[in-house]
Model the fold of this input.
Amino acid sequence: MNNVIKLYCQTASLAELRKFLQEKLEESAISDALQLQLILAVEEVCANLIIHSHHCNQSEHISVQVSQSESRIIFEIRDQGDSFNLLEYDTPKIKQVVGEKRKGGIGIILVKKIMDEIKFSAVGKTNICQLIKKI
Amino acid sequence: MLKLKQISESPNHILRVQGEIDASNSVQLDEAMQEAIQTGTKSILVDCLGLEYISSAGLGVFMSYLEDFKEEGISFKIYGLSEKVFEVFKILGLDQLIPIFTDKEAALAS
Done:
């Protein structure tokens, strides 16, 4: 079973990512509502990388790997762009986003609320983001 | 795949949203919201009965107009969210900022 998907850095790849994750998560006993939240959180990280780190350059790519054990599910996102560590990002308050009429900035709030653990590391030029959910 | 439809039911204006909204097509939702506002209506309802998925790009579009609606006295309501999509609104606390109803009748009756 192939648990890795390679996505070219274009926003059209996000639908492909969702389909891949849906297939992987359907194999688990996770509820539909949680499946959607996990897909959303992974997509938010990938969308940030594709848009902000890779500037939608279709000649570049990121990869997403899914691995599951009895107690947790791990999504590992690898890329070779400018490092973006969302843990260093100052998460805005929802009312602040609304007050400033901003359209962005809430994706990271979702990732932090949905996932149990978020880890960043780098091996050479490769950035690795691990999103972990206890199940 | 995202489908958007403007429906005028004076004095209300309905924006029907079907499919999936993500960073690749949220601009279309933004344009549709602007189109709805430009009709001059004081009541905008978003029909989400066919909305299967929405990421922060789409949620951000709705959020960015909330202050304008308040300032201009426009009533803004959402109805027909599936349970799992509604959960996403709740995670962000948007259910506290946007009136959300199960169906059109409930939205119009409030």
